[in-house]
Design a protein that fits this description.
There is one protein chain. The chain is mainly alpha-helical. The chain folds into two domains: 36-133, Alpha Horseshoe (Serine Threonine Protein Phosphatase 5, Tetratricopeptide repeat); 134-167, no CATH class. It has eight helices and two strands, in the order αααααααββα. The chain has a two-stranded antiparallel sheet. Strand 1 (144-149) and strand 2 form a beta hairpin. Helix 3 runs antiparallel to helix 4 (77-89) and helix 6 (113-125) runs antiparallel to helix 7.
């Protein structure tokens, strides 16, 4: 590498800092995130509760996230779902996507792909492009999946609900 000599003192210091920085940041990030701030976004749970009571979607979402992760409050995923629902009703797209994921996977709610898909679509309609359902998600939520028949080289759509009923 032209211009780089590991032996020079400045380069040794720079390399040392580059190697130590991820270790330092990994240990301090969580502490910084947990330090109570003066605002809801700064991690002040009480400020989030006040703002959520005023139907501020962002605050309800943050409060749901605090409950989901156990940041500044005792972890309670049922409360997280409640706050995400309030935020989604207040048209906070990220909360709608979070609910979509929870219903899709069955995290703290009964797994329901159709409901998950509806929340994903609501987030998409609110402008969150990465939440827009794919064709495969729609097919799975409707109880269909595609199976490729290797011998014939064709793709067959199978009704998984009918398939499950015949077993």
């Amino acid at each position: 590498m032209a211009g780089f000599r590991y032996g020079s003192r400045m380069n040794r210091v720079l390399v040392g800092l580059m190697l130590a920085l991820p270790l330092f940041c990994a240990s301090c990030t969580r502490e910084v995130a947990l330090r109570p701030g003066k605002t809801c976004d700064g991690g002040n749970v009480e400020k989030c509760k006040e703002a959520c009571d005023q139907n501020q979607g962002r605050a309800c979402y943050r409060l749901g996230w605090f409950y989901e992760e156990g940041l500044g409050v005792k972890q309670n995923r049922k409360k997280a779902v409640e706050h995400y629902e309030r935020a989604c009703q207040a048209k906070w797209a990220v909360a709608c996507r979070a609910l979509g994921m929870m219903y899709w996977r069955g995290d703290e709610v009964k797994r329901n792909r159709r409901t998950g898909l509806d929340y994903y679509q609501r987030a998409c309609d609110l402008g969150l492009a990465e939440a827009c359902p794919t064709e495969a998600m729609i097919a799975e939520a409707e109880g269909r999946r595609k199976r490729r028949d290797a011998g014939a080289g064709v793709t067959i759509t199978v009704d998984t609900q009918a398939e499950a009923g015949s077993k």
